[in-house]
From TrEMBL:
Gene3D superfamilies: Jelly Rolls. It comes from Chryseobacterium caseinilyticum. This is Crp/Fnr family transcriptional regulator. Residues 29-109 form the Cyclic nucleotide-binding domain. It holds the Pfam family cNMP_binding. It comes from the Bacteria. InterPro entries: cNMP-bd_dom, cNMP-bd_dom_sf, RmlC-like_jellyroll.
Length: 189
């Protein structure tokens, strides 16, 4: 729970008493490689804060092709947000790529935290805003750049992920073939 507190205190300061109450809303779950936290069609019960490990959020289209929406590493939040906030069944998957742990928070818990602690409402607003900005930047990059530019930006933003994620997943995330990624990777060295 120390990592949870550190993460929260990157944005807001909290007392020991406040954290004692805040942590009661979270459960910690250890996750193994290839384990799913969210599976398409299931109820989306939790939003997850990554404490350790690497995860991918993706959906599978009608032809069976996988589309990676997000990778998540330490201190990143993830879930199928459409299902989570709408309280509908998942249309996406969340899969663990590297053993780790997550802090799980229900929508009801999130709402109660925001009501009880105005500071936590501010925390969630900042996290949601930052996530929205990152998603918008990703969409703009996908729509207006070359595969090489997308690879360079991914390498710049997430140098630690490049060496920990299978190349096929990086290729899917960037919207390029595995062969194109191999060329980009060779040229980038």
């Amino acid at each position: 729970m120390d990592r949870l507190r550190e993460h929260i205190e990157e944005i807001i300061s909290i007392t020991d008493e406040e954290f004692a109450r805040i942590k009661t809303f979270f459960t910690i779950k250890n996750v193994r490689k290839n384990q799913f936290l969210v599976h398409e069609g299931d109820e989306v019960k939790y939003e997850f804060l990554t404490l350790d490990g690497i995860y991918k959020v993706f959906y599978v289209d009608e032809s069976g092709k996988e589309h990676i929406i997000q990778f998540a590493k330490k201190n990143w939040w993830m879930t199928d947000y459409i299902g989570f906030f709408s309280q509908k069944n998942a249309t996406m998957f969340v899969e663990c790529l590297q053993d780790g742990a997550v802090a799980c928070l229900t929508l009801e818990g999130r709402e109660k935290l925001a009501t009880e602690f105005h500071k936590m409402e501010h925390f969630f607003r900042i996290k949601l805003t930052n996530g929205y900005i990152a998603l918008q930047q990703r969409i703009i990059l996908l729509l207006s750049s070359t595969p090489q530019q997308r690879y360079q930006e991914f390498s710049r933003l997430y140098p630690d992920l490049i060496s920990h994620i299978p190349k096929k997943y990086v290729a899917e995330y960037l919207g390029v073939s595995r062969e194109t990624l191999s060329r980009l990777y060779s040229n980038g060295k």
